């Protein structure tokens, strides 16, 4: 079989492996993905608990999400994600604008981890953000199986999800600050 034939055959084999007809119901337990415009505030996951997961920074310091107290805004991002890069300075400014009312935790989903995150943080000079790493994308797999970034989730002081936003959002805006304070 020629290389061209093989390249054409692979997609056909993958399509043929589909386990249901287009009009058949999804498998039991499957989550239906509903497209939401980027930057839309979604509250349909409200009440989801903050996961008991741990992450490290480039120096090996451990962050235990389950041990967080007070409101927490968790942002899943990557250095290769253009909207993520735009949001990072806004997320860095947010805790200062909220005068200690909120902790912002950014967790990189970069596969290369510290190799790309450390120079990115050094170049940007963030004052309040810490470079937490999730090179296996565990958090993304749990909260965004579709792998969409950036994903930002607000958890209340009891560790329950209040809202989430997939895609770019102006986190240092008066609207965002009011929304967070209204939780």
Arithmetic mean pLDDT = 85
Second CATH tier, the architecture of one domain: 3-Layer(aba) Sandwich
Which value, in Å, is the CA radius of gyration?
19 Å
Q: Spans of 5+ residues with little confidence (pLDDT < 50)?
A: 1-33
What class do helices, strands and sheet pairing give?
Answer: alpha/beta
CATH-defined topology of one domain: Glutaredoxin
Which series of helices and strands comes N to C? HEEEEHEHEHEEH
Dominant shape: globular
Task: Give the secondary structure arrangement, pairings included.
Elements: H1 3-16, E1 40-42, E2 54-56, E3 62-64, E4 72-77, H2 82-97, E5 103-108, H3 114-124, E6 132-133, H4 138-143, E7 151-155, E8 161-166, H5 174-181
Parallel strand pairs: 4-5, 5-6
Antiparallel strand pairs: 1-8, 2-3, 4-7, 7-8
Could you describe the 3D structure shown?
- The structure is a single chain.
- With 183 residues, the chain is an alpha/beta fold.
- It has a domain at 40-47 and 69-183: 3-Layer(aba) Sandwich (Glutaredoxin).
- It has 5 helices and 8 strands, in the order H-E-E-E-E-H-E-H-E-H-E-E-H.
- It has helices spanning 3-16, 82-97, 114-124, 138-143, 174-181, and strands spanning 40-42, 54-56, 62-64, 72-77, 103-108, 132-133, 151-155, 161-166.
- The strands form 2 sheets. It has a 6-stranded mixed β-sheet with strand order 1-8-7-4-5-6. The chain has a two-stranded antiparallel ribbon with strand order 2-3.
- Strand 4 (72-77), helix 2 and strand 5 (103-108) form a beta-alpha-beta unit.
- It is globular and about 35 Å long.
- It starts with a helix and ends with a helix.
- Residues 1-33 have low confidence and may be disordered.
């Amino acid at each position: 079989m020629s290389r061209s034939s093989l390249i054409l055959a692979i997609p056909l084999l993958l399509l043929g492996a589909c386990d249901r007809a287009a009009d058949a119901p999804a498998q039991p337990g499957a989550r239906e993905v509903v497209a939401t415009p980027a930057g839309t505030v979604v509250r349909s996951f409200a009440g989801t608990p903050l996961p008991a997961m741990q992450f490290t920074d480039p120096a090996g310091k451990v962050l235990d999400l389950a041990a967080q107290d007070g409101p927490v805004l968790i942002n899943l991002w990557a250095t290769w994600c253009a909207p993520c890069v735009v949001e990072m300075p806004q997320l860095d400014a947010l805790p200062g604008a909220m005068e200690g009312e909120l902790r912002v935790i950014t967790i990189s989903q970069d596969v290369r981890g510290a190799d790309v995150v450390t120079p990115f943080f050094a170049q940007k000079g963030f004052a309040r953000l810490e470079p937490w790493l999730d090179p296996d994308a565990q958090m993304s797999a749990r909260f965004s199986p579709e792998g969409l970034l950036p994903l930002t989730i607000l958890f209340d002081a009891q560790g329950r999800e209040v809202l989430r936003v997939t895609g770019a959002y102006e986190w240092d805006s008066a609207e965002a600050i009011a929304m967070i304070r209204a939780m």
